[in-house]
Amino acid sequence: MKRNKSFPQNIVLIAITAVFLLSTNFSCKNAGKKVAEVEEATTEIETTPDFQISLAQWSLHKTFFGVESMDWAAFGKTLMESPDDLLKGPDPMDFPAMAAEYGVNSIELVNTFYYSKADDMEYWTAFKKNCDAAGVKVGLIMCDALGNLGDADPEARKAAVENHHKWVDVAQFLGAHSIRVNAAGNGTAEEVAENAVDGLSSLGAYGASKGINIIVENHGGYSSDGTWLSGVMAKVDMDNVGTLPDFGNFCIARSPDGCAKEYDRYKGIAELMPYAKGVSAKSHAFDAAGNEVDSDFLRIMKIVKESGFKGYVGIEYEGTELSEDEGIKATKALLEKVFKEL
Question: What are phi and psi of 3, to 5 degrees?
């Protein structure tokens, strides 16, 4: 048989072709896998909701206090002298499990339900275990009755700042991101603003050392003026000091007949959102279609979305027409409906 002199070259050519085909096939498979991974990641990003729902404990304040109406004049005195006597309903230790029944995974605590427990780490260890068992986390702690951060007296203002420290510590232990505070004080709008900037800056520094945000709610008085509060935020100018815009707390001055001076809530929300680290969906009453009668939730949430905020929107029901249980469910249903319409 005559030898084919090109045989070695043919073998090499065949081998190179085979390697090329195998590598091309492998690359195509890898490319397909990478494309699939990218598509899956993109789908996950696109389907991850910008907003989730949390539950503010104040929505159940009548339940925990065990009363339909509170004598608020006596409330403060009792809170200072024997705070646990105010709790005539369920044990606040059970709040994580109660909240989980509404299908939320984040809760907002109110310090007045735990006023005697601030330094009790054994209590908070047990509370954290209850959170884990219920599958919920603490998002923030709403802090009241700790003194005015905008107090005109420097010593009183310093004391107020220090009174908040223990709640910053509790928030850190529980894994919360923030404590909600009040920017209150006596004097002119300019005077209180100056003092509030000082108090918030001092507390903000302590919060930063613990990885906790200090957030101010529009909560009556000057703080319910969106221009005033956003101005305070601009002057504080700290990454961990911000706001908790509340849909309904825009009454600047009250009279025996109700709110005597109210700030435009939509303007106020827009002014506070650039500093927001949380949002509070205040509700009181609903119409037949399930819409809140005083606040246009869709309009507000469009403002929230346009600000770039992403995160938890807290249910805070304070109405009287529905029970607390019904009010929480109605607010949750409305938020879920609005989220779909955004």
Answer: -75, 135
